[in-house]
């Protein structure tokens, strides 16, 4: 099967237009039609519904699309492997939740890259659900996530456990308080990051119903910068605020009362077969040196 035919199918799925697909691939529209017709003949199935108004995948097309995407990815990975053979012996792809990368994973990456210069490392950042799906699809080797996988065939390690911290700017009147009762959080206009999971459940107890915050931001490190600039207060994981606390650019006020925020867990997830690969084993060895990924679940 011609790899260009699969590329045409993938692009047509995205553009839903024969003319736009032809333009992107720098071919004539009749070639797009011929490639799709060739693929449908090979598979013996209709892949697209097409008329003057729309181009949509059929049920058969929806079923075949993930396999086409995997073939294309394997082909591109194979080309990259050949082109990189002189520089690297292997590759390691790690999916990470956004906030873990600049926080406790930085020393792990630093040491791994120094110790294994012949391994090409790709770090992919995203949300836990997306990263776990990439692991299921075989796109990544290791997932660093905040939630446990629902599929039991994976090996999971508890690699970090930490608390949530209430922080405010040093010049804020709140900084003079010896403690912050959780019942008083509802009156504070927080800079908010939704960590999801048990944290969301805890927030729902404090803030019944749906409400807005001073700012709702997906990047917790950005929130730390805003707190340092005196914009407001926030509740973040300790690893996120540790450097700012050491700089004395923010103030931690202990949370008291009930319910206190939950402990926050970070997990390392891998398929058991991937553990046989040396780059994967080396990665977990480095994590263990930094007191991470030590507890199998």
UniProtKB/TrEMBL annotation:
UniProt keyword annotation of rRNA-binding present: no
Record-level Gene Ontology MF annotations: DNA-binding transcription factor activity; transcription cis-regulatory region binding
UniProt xrefs under CDD domains: PBP2_LTTR_substrate (cd05466)
Keyword Membrane: no
Pfam families per UniProt: HTH_1 (PF00126), LysR_substrate (PF03466)
InterPro entries linked to this entry: LysR_HTH_N, LysR_subst-bd, WH-like_DNA-bd_sf, WH_DNA-bd_sf
Sorted UniProt keywords: DNA-binding, Transcription, Transcription regulation
Span of domain HTH lysR-type: 1-58
Assigned protein family: Belongs to the LysR transcriptional regulatory family.
Name of the protein in question: Transcriptional regulator
Organism (species): Acetonema longum DSM 6540
């Amino acid at each position: 099967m011609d790899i260009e035919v699969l590329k045409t199918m993938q692009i047509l799925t995205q553009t839903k237009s024969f003319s736009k697909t032809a333009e992107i691939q720098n071919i004539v529209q009749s070639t797009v039609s011929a490639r799709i017709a060739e693929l449908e003949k090979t598979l013996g199935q209709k892949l697209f519904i097409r008329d003057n108004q729309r181009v949509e995948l059929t049920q058969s097309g929806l079923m075949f699309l993930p396999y086409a995407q995997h073939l294309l990815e394997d082909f591109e990975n194979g080309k990259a492997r050949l082109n990189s053979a002189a520089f690297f012996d292997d590759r390691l792809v790690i999916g990470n939740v956004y906030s873990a990368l600049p926080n406790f994973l930085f020393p792990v990456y630093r040491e791994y890259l120094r110790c294994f210069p012949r391994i090409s490392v790709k770090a992919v950042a995203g949300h836990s659900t997306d990263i776990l799906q990439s692991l299921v699809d075989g796109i990544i080797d290791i997932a660093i996530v905040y939630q446990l996988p629902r599929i039991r065939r994976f090996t999971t390690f508890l690699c970090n456990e930490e608390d949530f911290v209430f922080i405010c700017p040093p010049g804020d009147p709140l900084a003079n308080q010896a403690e912050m009762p959780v019942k008083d959080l509802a009156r504070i206009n927080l800079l908010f990051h939704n960590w999801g999971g048990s944290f969301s459940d805890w927030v729902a107890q404090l803030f019944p119903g749906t409400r807005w915050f001073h700012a709702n931001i997906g990047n917790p490190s950005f929130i730390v910068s805003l707190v340092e600039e005196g914009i407001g207060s926030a509740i973040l994981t300790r690893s996120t605020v540790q450097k700012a606390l050491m700089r004395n650019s923010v103030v931690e006020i202990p949370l008291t009362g009930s319910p206190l925020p939950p402990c926050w867990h970070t997990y390392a997830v891998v398929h058991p077969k991937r553990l046989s690969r040396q780059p994967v084993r080396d990665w977990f060895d480095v994590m263990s040196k930094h007191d991470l990924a030590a507890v199998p679940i």
